[in-house]
Amino acid sequence: MTTNSTITPELLDQLLANYEKPEDLTGEAGLFKRLKKALIERALGAELTEHLGYEKGDPAGRGSGNSRNGSSSKTVLTEDGEIEIAVPRDRAGSFEPQLIAKGQTRLDGFDEKILSLYARGMTVREIQGHLLELYGTEVSPDLISRVTDAILDEVREWQNRPLDAVYPVVFFDALRVKIRDDGLVKNKAVYVALALNADGEKDVLGLWIEQTEGAKFWLKVINELKARGVNDILIAVVDGLKGFPEAISSVYPLTTVQTCIVHLIRNSLAFVSWKDRKAILPAIKSIYRAENADAALLRLEEFEAEWGKRYPAIGQAWRRAWEYVVPFFAFAPGIRKMIYTTNAVEALHRSLRKIIKTRGSFPNDDAALKLLYLAIRNAGLRWRRTVDWTAAMGQFSIQFGERFPGAAR
Length: 409
Hints:
By secondary structure, the chain is of the alpha/beta class.
């Protein structure tokens, strides 16, 4: 590790000559803040020297047509609070500072501080109070809104970024968020597409907001993924939405569509009284935990024989979805759970719900997209692999051949 040789122990001793307590370093008039001010002003002075072409007081500047012309006072917001600096000027007015540009009132890093707080679910007013409490800095709600609104360009770029040509698994699901629309707070769906790439790494392909969850809107989402470069999806895991498998197949005809078993179980239990749930759940679990598809069908028949008269809708629901229930049986038991559940999306949703739960409702769609995007980008969501991906790669290579992007590795 290299160090800056100009920061000598002697220099540090000189700077700390009057140090007695922590406030002497970190306080409002502490060394850190004074040193930042001195360094900023020194750097701006060096920029002006470079602009003029001669040092201060150098006779070479005489008759050059431009010269120093004092300074103007300017207050900038930093992570240490407000700092008042002297910005040097030239007589010709041609000097354009680079460290702190004309019109700039915040140092790099301050905006990121605001975005970090916003990404943790804080409201504009809460961020304002937090900055005032920690840094003694009075920041207007309008400034905070402008900083967070500026992230929308980044969101749009992220939403339109090119994607991989092939994804082994893509999970499609929706998260419910309260958003104000036409003066009313509505419960809107935020659609999420979470993919596993050829290396087993997770990637959120996009976020989309719509009033209600429907196959037509999913078709729009899938067509957008196609336009962004996704040529093939090996397995699409869906939540049982009517018409969704057909929407996927119309764009990706070779894709294996797997119904999320967790959603199917939830829908099944909606028909069951509380007193019967404890008894009926093991019978349902025995269906998807069977050794193979034939055994699963046998378990379904046994379930119907025992519970069919009392709860006929359950067996009917499983039979209607059977084509999309059984694809996971083509894989080894250790990999099946990854395929037949949307656990990966549910884990993402839990992380996002922790952030949005204190917000009540959002003023508009853009406000919701900003926070959800920043939460994904900044909140430290961990994309852990849920299975032994090396084993999964072998299974996918056998099942899908050259369609699997890792087959040639």
